[in-house]
Design goal:
By secondary structure, the chain is of the alpha/beta class. It has a single domain, classed as Rossmann fold, CATH 3.40.50. The chain is 38% helix and 23% strand. It is built from five helices and seven strands. It has helices at 14-26, 38-41, 62-71, 90-95, 108-120; strands at 6-10, 30-34, 50-54, 56-57, 60-61, 80-84, 100-103. It has a five-stranded parallel beta sheet, with helices on both faces. The chain has a two-stranded antiparallel sheet with strand order 4-5. Helix 1 (14-26) links the parallel strand 1 and strand 2. It starts with 5 loop residues before the first strand and ends with a helix. 30% of the residues are buried.
Length: 121
């Protein structure tokens, strides 16, 4: 079981977090979540293998969090898939250092495909 990949979801929409958690859990991933983006910047250990990060969260901009994580030695290698209901900010997600982007609402198969791609790289 130690081969289980850890995925963290950072999104302030409980419905999305619940649905994605259930699907990823079903796929065999170890899933954790936070509704507060700033908790990601407090991580010192137990880093996820991949991060699903919402761009708009109450109190924080996911792009700022992404930029900060990509600057840090311990977290710069974590693939970050940014999620947003706004398709027109896809470029800004990549500019912030995101490894991938997914617009809401999304198909779970699209999400799983992106996750697999980044975890296998």
């Amino acid at each position: 079981m130690e081969n289980t990949k850890k995925i963290m979801i950072a999104d302030d929409d409980p419905g999305i977090v619940d649905a994605v958690e259930i699907m990823l859990d079903f796929e065999g991933y170890q899933v954790s979540s936070t509704v507060n983006g700033s908790t990601l910047l407090d991580m010192q250990s137990e880093f996820p293998d991949l991060l699903l990060l919402d761009i708009w969260m109450s109190g924080s901009d996911g792009r700022d969090i992404c930029r900060e994580l990509k600057k840090r030695e311990l977290t710069k290698g974590i693939p970050i898939i940014m999620i947003s209901a706004s398709r027109d900010i896809e470029k800004s997600a990549y500019d912030a250092g995101a490894d991938d982007f997914l617009a809401k609402p999304f198909e779970i198969d699209d999400l799983l495909g992106k996750i697999r791609k980044h975890l296998e790289e």
